[in-house]
Amino acid sequence: MSTIEQHSNDPAEVDITEAETAEADTTATDDSTDDTQPGDDTPTAPTGEPIPGVRLENVDTARLVKHHANVRTNVVLRPSFVKSIKERGVRVALKVKEHPDGRLEIVMGERRLFGAIEAGRPQVPCIIVEAGPLADDFLDMYTENVERDGLTAIEEAQALFRAAEAGASRTKISKSLGLKPDVVRKSIAAGGLSDHARQVVAETPQYEWGLDELAVLAEFDGDPDAVARIAAHARRRNFEYGVNLERAARERRAAREAVITKLAEAGVPISDLPLPGMVALDVLAGRDGEPMQPDEHATCPGHRAIRLGDTSEHPVRFVCNDPTANGHRPYRPSADAPSSAPQPTENNAEDRAKKALIRTGNAAWRAATKTRQDHLRQYLTRKTLPRDAVEFVTRQLVMRTQPVAKWMNNPRAKILADLLSMPIGTELNHITERLATANDKRLMVIQLGVIAAAHEKAMDEHTWRFDETWGEVTRKAAGQWLEFLSTIGYNPAPIERAVIDQKLYTGDDDTATTAADEEPPTDAEAEASATLEPADDDAANLATVHTMPVDAANPVDHIDPEHAPDADIEYAA
Predict the structure, then answer these.
(1) Which backbone phi and psi does 135 adopt, to 5 degrees?
(2) 3-class secondary structure for 100-143?
């Protein structure tokens, strides 16, 4: 299906047209096509001699007649097609045959003629041939309309990208082809994909790449690994999920860099790798006997921050480069008091793997939730529901499932309004006002919206975790909800599929790993962590470092004031 056709002003008309395909094959760029005159333009044979009985003329549309036996019975004129002809004229000549009585009968190009008449163009260019055997007419019709390949989505985009490169403005492209400005913008972005990205697209034929998907892929064209991961998700029909994973990872990386920049501006020395003798602050005692805090340590000559890789949960670890020389002592928790320092179990491989999986799963769940709710918003704009969906809504109300029961006791307007695409802050009474104007079928769609809000409100980042027994009932209900969504066009992400199957999620498959900052620690990071551990037996359980979480949306402002050394310097990690 032609991508550009999908975005024409009349999306219901999607057939590839003879004129547009022919236009795609032409290299004509001179806007004076309509002024072509016979004579010098008479077609010639390879020898240079004129072809007998063939000439090129601009012909008045009133002189042309339809073929008396045209095999095409339905001619559709899309608004974009007519606008293109109105702006630039007919760019590909019609083939007509001249009868002895002077009649000019169309053999190829009937749609171009009707488009010109609709656009108010009085003349069209025609290749005029002498009337020949009737059988040849039908062979010509077949050849023009069957023996051809339409452009792929990426080829269409490249055509507009190259037009822009050659000097055509977006406005000219839009007017010349009858395309909406947003379509032109996306096409130019998609048409500029690198050779690597185009190769990845070509190697993923099982996914139907459209203009929207190609334009989104262009966002990540500078990151070959991200492009490959998105394509791997696309192979499983999880394109949107893969994109949401990558966007979240990109935001997180930007937040990490913002934190590190803030620390550097505050004068904190930052190292990429720890050096021998460096010890994490959490294993050093502060003035109050508790683990050392960054604000307290800020004036120490040995105050440093170690930059951690994207695979780590936090961007930096605070350390002292020489605790002995700087007069620090190890932290020793009292026997009868709970320790605020991390326990040694956090440093064994099993615990690190578990935490890495939780980070991976939480990131996957957040990306899946955004993808799922985007799908729901679109689905809930429909006017009616299929019978299976109506049955599901009724069953949920009859059985009064746990999420529905909780909703009935405490309905929340925010998530319901969001799923129904209503403005943020819409109150329940405003939502109910819509019920008065909705017809019976639309009311059923709104009821599904209520069921959706109930389930989406009940689910969170704990839903996928089968190591937590408290959520067993919720997980079962979540599985039923996600399974229902799979029947109305939603393709669950791997983590959602695990909930449907009531199995433990262990990560996306090897060909579609999560984004870089959710992968297991590298060997270099493990070595760095070991370097930060003190060798003194008195500090055997003091192996971790002080960290604070990053607010990906606002990394600079998300700072604990207790960890700010003074009014002008703030730390976040």
Answers:
(1) -60, -35
(2) CCCCEEEEECHHHHHHHHHHCCCEEEEEEEECCCHHHHHHHHHH
At residue 330, the 3 state secondary structure works out as strand
User: Counting beta carbons within 10 angstroms of the beta carbon of residue 345, is it exposed (0 to 12), middle (13 to 18) or buried (19 or more)?
Assistant: exposed
**Cβ–Cβ < 8 Å for 178, 84:** yes
10-48 core/surface letters (b: 16 or more CB in 10 A; e: else): eeeeeeebbbbbbbbeeeeeeeebbebeeeeeeeeeeee
Cα dihedral sign, 17-18-22-28? negative
Query: How far, in Å, CA of 427 to CA of 413, rounded?
Result: 6
What's the start-to-end Cα distance of the chain, in Å? Answer: 49
> Distance between CA 52 and CA 100 in Å, rounded?
16
Order of strands, edge to edge, in the sheet holding 303-307? 270-271, 303-307, 316-320, 279-280
Token readout for 130 is 């002498």
Find, among 464, 111, 539, 45, the residue nearest to 291 by Cα. 539
- The Cα-based distances of 47 to 38, 41, 44, 179 in angstroms read 20, 15, 8, 42
In this structure, what DSSP letter does residue 193 have? -
Alpha-carbon distance of 160 to 178, in angstroms, equals: 13
8 Å CB contact between 164 and 188 = yes
Helix then strand count (H, E) for the chain reads 22, 9
Buried/exposed code over 224-252 (b: 16+ C-beta within 10 A; e: otherwise): eebbbbbbbbbbbebbbbbbbbbbbbbeb
Q: What is the dihedral of CA 102, 107, 111, 116, to 10 degrees?
A: -30
Low-confidence ranges of the chain (pLDDT < 50): 1-40, 341-346, 510-573
**Residue corresponding to tokens 């079928």:** 441
Give ∠ CA 98-99-101 in degrees, rounded to 5. Answer: 125
Kindly list the distances between the CA atom of residue 266 and the CA atoms of 270, 318, 363, 428, in Å, as whole numbers in the listed order: 11, 14, 31, 47
CA distance readout (Å), 242 to 36, 224, 307, 505: 52, 14, 27, 17
Alpha carbon of 88 to those of 23, 73, 149, 531: distances in Å? 12, 27, 24, 70
